[in-house]
Amino acid sequence: MFTHYIDLAWRSLRQTPMVTFLMILAIAIGIGVTMTTLSVYHMMSMDPIPQKSNRLFAVQMQTMDEGETWQTEDNIPYQLTYPDAINLQALPGDFARAAMIRSGFSVHLNTPSSKPFIENARVTGRDFFSMFDLTFIHGGAWTEAQSRSAAPVVVIDEEMAQQLFGKTDVVGESLFLGERRQEIVGVTQKWRPTIKFYDLNNGSFGKAERLFVPFSHVKAYDVDTWGNTNAWKFEETRDFNDKMNSEMVWIQFWVQLDTPAQRQAYGDMLMAYMQAQQKLGRFNREELSYGLQDVNAWMNYNDVISEDNKILVGLSFMFLAVCVANILGLLLAKFMRRAADVGVRRALGASKRQVFYQHLVEVGLLGLLGGSLGVLFAQLGLLGVRQSYDYYESLANMDWVMLLSAPAIAISACILAGLYPAWLVCRTTPATHLKVQ
Amino acid sequence: MFELKPTINALMRSKLGAVLLILQLAITLAIVSNAVSIIQDRMTYLNKNTGYPEDDIFKFNSLNFDKQSDLLQQVELDEQKLRGITGVIDAVAISSVPLSGSGSSGGMQLKPEPQESKRSNMGYVTGDEHVLSTLGVSVSEGRDFTEADVVVIDDSDARPSVVIVSRALSDALFGAGKGLGETIYWGADPLSIIGIVETMANQWPKSSFGEKMAIIPMLRVGNFQKYLVRTAPGERAQVMRQIEELMLSGHRDRVISDITGLDQKKARYDAKDVLMMRMLITLIVVLVIVTALGIFGLSTFNISKRTKQIGTRRALGARKSAIVRYFVVENALICAMGLMLGTAAAVLLGQQLMQWYSVPALGYSFIAITAGLLLMMSLLSVLMPALRAANISPSIATRSV
């Protein structure tokens, strides 16, 4: 029966090519516009690390004096001071933790043929790799001892290994960061999350780093951040040592807490730490507070999805509503004109329900056609987005979820528009139409 | 004379089509007027004068990795080399690049920290006495820096003592037109305002303090150094091409990167707004097309449904113009209701957007203009089917089916 309805629907669509064309165009444009904005929105809001996003937490502490404010909703700075990061790193407990900054170096092999280039680096603890699920192809993270002694070691990814050495198995080889020779101890698989969720201060959709350096190098080699440094009070900082001892915030800190109990314990530990620091004259405030937010909460807190995008998604759904109204009008016109045919079918024994289904199949087919064309339009739209803003390169794409939802949305929209006209047409009394003939 | 009553009566008998059109027009008006208002807001920002000849300026970075070299001497050598290139007007080592979206910001205030006093946020750059000339701006009051004003930050305790600010910053601290010769505090350091530049955007032209800029005559050298170069009009491209080679000659232990024009820097900083504008414009265009098609389609259908009535009216003596008028009046009635409803929807949507997002208040003129244009579009799309209806021959009425 279904195939028969499809056949009928196809004939009917071909009978009125102009109206069919207008309807398909309307739904296709509607879907094209909606899917363009929705795809970007979808990519921006996607959980970047679903397998453990609720076990990774960004740590914040209210370090500012009473009465000071910050641009965050709860007034707590995004980042930590260097002393706090070092102290948190040293807290007892069996859980992964990583202080980190974004920095960069001029990388070369110290041979005449290798031209130095600037490379962003993540300066962080050894737990970083296990916390964020990076996979090693060769070697592994630097050891605890290497980290403590600020040994000249680095981890790079396969792409960079290829670029420098033409192969990936480069453990034991050395590269130069500036004038410092560093040994490669591990090569990771290429890791490029669409959202740079672990560092939302420096552009949420920037590329993940390919070069990893132990956090102890910050102190040992004066490695400064290439990201934001914020101060909430005036302090004389003449050199990097002053900066490390200041109340300026510039370090990001993540912990992995696997159970609610662990999380509770960690929160208590932070509180105890801040109280201890209060005795040393820091944290001058009545009420101590900290932030411990998991990946999705952290992205929300940092407003990863831009305002513009939310407005556009809203407007494009309103636009889709206009398209649906448009199609409803056209369907009404088309179906009512066919009332006479329906009269004959009814007189020959088709039930109301069958007529109703037949027409819904027709609008469903319309939706499928329009939706498929709409996906093409959306691809064009996304191409336009990528071209006018290369920063959205990895975001302005349709994944399979979006590819499947496009026809799904199109078909539901069409069926929604077709319900009333189909209902009207199935109610026609056969007699009236037979008489006219 | 417009036969309003029969038109309305006929409308009342087939309400649904009319209701759909009314809804379409209302939503269209709400979306278009709000979108146009947002576009207009972004356009105003994008067309705002930054004060700089952006097409003649470019920047680049130099990252040294050779610890032995005397960095200060290197910077001075570089500057001299750059200023010597034919086609270059001036060049300077600068702490950050205006219009680029990154750099240093802070507060200038009337009393030294930690005392409480009037304070204004601003973006600042530091460099030697060539900063203004390289940026292509000049003071409208006071004087430019001289070599004696420039302080090199090293182990000594020397601090800068003078500053040149944009008019917006001096106005914010001292009131319109005042500020020259006054002292402001940058943290605890007093700086005397020796010059005021009329228009000079800072590193974040989009921000609330985008016009407040200070230039501090101070040189703090590091391994990572930014340079700014201004060339004679039309010479920029050829100068940019030779920069890397030239900078590496004589000092190879460094990386020259990000050789970018100031206009491109600003374009990158504004890319999001340009994208939003393009998306909204696309949305408006397709929306208007879809609505027009809807009106056209529905009128065509209505006319074919009423072929017999039209024939009858013609047979009974109605002129062609009367038939056209009938459809136009019908459409105008629908349109008027749609636009009335749409005005309410537009105001509501505007309020919602303003409540949740940082968009400007929706001006009523936007609604009025959009409504006028929609009315015209609607009448145009009904005209063709109506003219066709007028050509229906009266004899149709006499035939059965």
Produce a short descriptive summary.
The complex is a heterodimer of chains A (437) and B (401). Chain A has 437 residues and is α+β, with helices and mostly antiparallel strands. Chain A has helices spanning 2-15, 17-45, 82-89, 128-131, 144-148, 158-165, 217-220, 240-245, 260-279, 295-301, 307-337, 339-347, 352-388, 400-426, 430-436, and strands at residues 56-61, 97-108, 117-124, 136-139, 153-157, 174-177, 180-188, 211-214, 252-256, 290-294.
Main attributes of the structure:
heterodimer, A: 437 residues, alpha+beta, 2 domains, six-stranded mixed beta barrel, 15 helices, 10 strands, 49% helix, elongated, B: 401 residues, eight-stranded mixed sheet, four-stranded antiparallel sheet, 11 helices, 19% strand
Number of strand segments of chain B:
12
Uncertain runs of chain A: none
Q: Secondary-structure element sequence of chain B? A: HHEHEEEHEEEHEEEEHEHHHHH
- In the residues of chain B, how many domains can be counted? 2
Number of helices of chain A: 15
Q: Estimate what percentage of residues of chain A fall within beta strands.
A: 5-15%
Q: Structural class, judged by helices and strands of chain B? A: alpha+beta
Distance between the termini of chain B: 31 Å
Rounded mean pLDDT of chain A is: 90
Instruction: Report the major sheet of chain A.
Output: 6 strands, mixed, barrel
